[in-house]
Specification:
It is a single chain. The protein has 329 residues and is of the alpha/beta class. Strand 5 and strand 6 form a beta hairpin.
Length: 329
Amino acid sequence: MIVFEAGSAPGARAGEAEIGGRRITGRLLPYAGESGAHEFRFDPLARRFVGRKDGATVLVGPADSEAWRAAAARLPRGPLLVGPASVAEGVRGAYRAAAEGALSAGYPAFLLDPSPEGVPDRAGGAIALCSFAPSPGRRFPHLAAAAARGLTCGVVLPWIPGWTAEEEEVEAILAEAAAGGAVSATPLVPDSDGESRRAIVEARSGADAQLPDGFFERIHHADWSPAIADRLARFQERCAEFGLALAPPRPVGRGEPAGNSAAASRLEELADAAALDEHRAALLRAAVRWIDESGRDLAAVCREGNFRRVFPFEGEIASEAEEALRSGG
């Protein structure tokens, strides 16, 4: 039995992270604890499978969007991650309130696994992230409903040799994502500590009672690096053939200048492509942070000819940002 306990304050956490190369500056947790129809889901922020138990206590945030708006306003500027939702959303309403609070505070918002009841009426600019759940049925159980509510959706999945990285499963994943209305499919390499590896095996066992030969040994004892590197390029090719981007779109906040969002998005993509050059990637991400925190319409600054006077980065970074600001994308 799942016990839902009302919390007195919104669950808001500051902390910079990324999902598929997209910057996250904080998180709103309307439900602290796991509940849902599937035994496991893949958490794209922690990069591990999270187990759901029949007997659990879930702390529920307030169904007051103003309380969530005030909590969001104390977090650093930049995209927030809201969610995931809960089976109790139709009664509790905490997810919808948290999403409304983030949006009304002007933050770009990623909505993680939203339920239909949790999607605000004015959610334009928000991006739904629908995570992988190992199941004989739908791999992305929240995708169809989120797309039906008019949200732009991306799917996120664990990239696991012997399972989701195998060609047959890739085809099924991408076909389901495209048919469900997703615009992107983002593979994430799971955390490789012992707990995460155990969860992978348990999650696969729950979806497939008969594990393939050697899967346990491969997960617990093999080096994943060669298989991961070899297959990511092919995954990107198949994504393009299905009309799917590799990175999720960057959300746009209410009142956020469109040029700022476009410039930040472009620099994030360059940083992700430059991951092996740690110094350059760090500079690009610092530039994204500066744009998020600037609070100015930088496209207007560009039109006035003053962008390079205020932008504290030079060379290619400044050129790419300026081009995105001028073109709006």
